[in-house]
Amino acid sequence: MPHFPETPKSLLVQAAKRTTKQYSARPTPDELAANRRARVGREDLEGPHPSALGVDAVDSGAAHADPRQADPSEPGPGQRWSTWRSVAKGQRGPDPVPGWVVTRDAALDTELGILKTGKEADAFLLERAVPPGGVTPSDRGPDGGLPAGDAPSDQAERCLLVAKRYRSLEHGQFHRGTEYTEGRRTRRTRDQRAMEDRKSAWGRAVSATQWADAEFVALRDLWSAGAPVPYPVQIDGTEVLMEFIGTEVSDEAGRVQAVAAPRLTRERPSDDLLESYWEQLTGGMGVLARLGFAHGDLSPYNILADGERLVIIDLPQVVDLASNPFASEVLLRDCRTVCAWFTARGLDVDADALFADLLAQAF
Asked: Where is this region: Disordered (predicted)?
């Protein structure tokens, strides 16, 4: 996986009022904790609701220094060239690729801040952008010209992504892996044997990529089937890039800030919206079941409320309903967890009935 270049600690952003954002490739745990308190302080891709913008929002690329003033031949601190074309086609999101995804080689990936720290991975906000007139040598053909559609534009191209980076097992805190990975197999038997050997360094590395692979494959299949999940842009080693769910708003100073959609657990929807949320959620769980999956950790903390729509996130622990001996138990737990939230808000739902319906759709 391409890494961001190392940056002196003095360049780390410590206050929201700075206009030029630069980040190190990998903050230390102490720096991560301080950064979360000073900047975002939210979990599970959560941010303040657009109607209540606060200092927890993360500045978007509009707050950066003008990229045309920098050396266009080299990425700046906290940047790298886009990795879109450096990964194999099978490691990119499903076709058709949405029009908002920036795919040009001239694009730069710039880290804007941390969104979430989790048990097995950290999620960062990433801007992939092409400055006005931006061109790299790889954009040009053999004759020095630009392919159709790749000509420089007076308008910058940009999109916001979530970069979810999985830790190695020795640095993770997630210890319930067996319940979810039972029945999973790798393509190479050598890797499978290494994973089963707890003393194997190679096995630990393969296990780390297995979580990233599982989430990317699940997102890809679910997106193609019409489930309410973020679009998976690409996977590169243990890094999964996916659609940022949220909005961009301007504060009183005119700065544009990215605001992640809040988790469902924070919402107090009206009766009509509550019913709509229930229909969307059960529809998404039905798509999972028909594809042979259970989410495995579904709760209001892993569901984003993006206005009137729900988006299901965090799918590395998806469970195979056919091969995993714990599948029924895991699916029933998902049903009971989400039904408890809706019941507490006055909607008459039945976890056992939902469980039976999902099993019927799966088999």
From this structure: 1-82, 130-153
Cis peptide bond upstream of 96, omega within 30 = yes
Owner of token pair 């029009």: 99
Which residue in this structure is represented by tokens 């976890």? 351
Using CA atoms, how far apart are residues 139 and 91, in angstroms rounded to an integer?
A: 21
List the chain pLDDT tens, one digit each, 363 residues: 555 544 443 333 333 333 333 333 455 656 655 554 444 333 333 433 333 333 345 655 544 444 444 555 578 889 999 999 999 999 999 999 999 999 998 899 999 999 988 888 999 999 999 987 665 545 544 454 445 445 555 556 999 999 999 987 554 444 445 566 665 554 445 444 444 445 545 445 556 688 899 999 999 999 999 999 999 999 999 999 999 999 998 888 888 889 999 999 999 999 999 999 999 999 999 999 999 999 999 999 999 999 999 999 999 999 999 999 999 999 999 999 999 999 999 999 999 999 999 999 999
C-beta separation of 297 from 326 below 8 A? no
From the options 3.30.70.2690, 1.10.510.10, 1.10.240.10, 3.40.640.10, give the CATH code of 264-362: 1.10.510.10
Helices (H) and strands (E) in the chain, counts: 7, 13
Q: Which two tokens stand for residue 201?
A: 């360094």
* Cα 229 to Cα 156, 216, 288, 290, distances in angstroms: 27, 11, 11, 15
The token pair that represents 160 in the structure block = 């916001």
